[in-house]
Amino acid sequence: MKGLITKATGSWYQVRMDDGESLACRLPGKFRLSEEDVVNPAAVGDIVDVTRQSDGTGIIDRIMERKNQLLRKATHGRRGVQILAANVDFVLIVQSWRNPAFKTGFIDRLLVLCEAYDIPALIILNKTDLLKGEKDREKLDEIGQLYSGLGYQFLETSIHHTDTVEQLGDVLKGKISVLAGHSGTGKTSLLNALSPDLNLKTGEISHFSSKGKHTTTYAQLIELGGETHVVDTPGIREFGLVDFDSYEISHYFPEMKPLIENCRYSNCTHRHEPSCAVKKAVEDNRIAESRYRSYINIIESSENEADNAF
Predict the structure, then answer these.
(1) Is residue 181, in this structure, part of any structural domain at all?
(2) Does the reported pTM lie above 0.90?
(3) DSSP label at 263?
C-alpha cells in the first residue's frame, strides 16, 4: 500500500493512502539506525510504502526517493539535522506591507534556504490594501523589480482584492507548499480566502515563525482542495544552514554567484578581502545594498551559531 505522510507527531505518522483512507503508522527503528545524522528519517510530504497491521495501524516499510527536502539543524541540544518537509513545490515567503512592517532581511534569509535545498521560492507581499500614496507604490514596485530581476516569483496580495487571491490560487494549484512568515502578516486570512471551508481562526497558523514558542517539531499538511496543500511546520525561521562554510553562502545569492570566480581568493567571504568582485559590484550598484547587508547578517549569524556550538 502506498501513501503520503500528512502529519508527523514524533513516533507516529498519519498517512493518507491512495484509496483516501488515513492510517496511523509507525516507523521501524531500522530507519533511525540507517540515518544516524537525521532526527526524523520520515517527514511530511514523503511518499511511503505501508503494511497494514491487525490492530488497524500501519508500519512504514519504505520511504520513496525524494525530489527535495527542507532541512534545518536539530534543535533542543540534539545533534544532526531535522527534515521539515519533503517533496515540496514551493516555499511561500509571506510579508505584509504594514502591521507588521516589511523586512527584506527575512526574505533574503529564506531565499538562501530555498537556493541551498533546490526548492522554488514564491515571495508574497500581502496586505497591499494598506498602500498609501505614490511613494508606497514606487517603493513596492522597486522591491518587486529587485526580486523579479533575480529570477524569483513575486506576487502582491490582499484578501480585499479577490483577483490577487485567485492569482495565488492558480499558482499553488495541485502543489505542496511550505508557508513562512511572521505572525500578523495575514497568512491565516490568505488560507481562508483560498479555501473558505477551512474556517481557520486567526493565530492557528501564526506559529510558523513565532520564534521560541515551540517545544515540538510536529508538522502537517493543510488541504486547500484540488490536491493543493500547505505544509504547516514549526521553526522554519530557525533553519540554520547545515555544514556550510562562510564563503559558501554567497553561492546561494544568484547575483553574487557569477562574480565569485573573479575574486582574488577562492574562499573569499566578500567582507574584508582585497580584489573582491562582489564588493566592487555593490559599490557599482550592480548588487543591491539591502541584499549585501542581508548576506553579511547571515554570515555573522552562521558564525555565531558555530562559535556557540563549542
Answers:
(1) yes
(2) no
(3) S
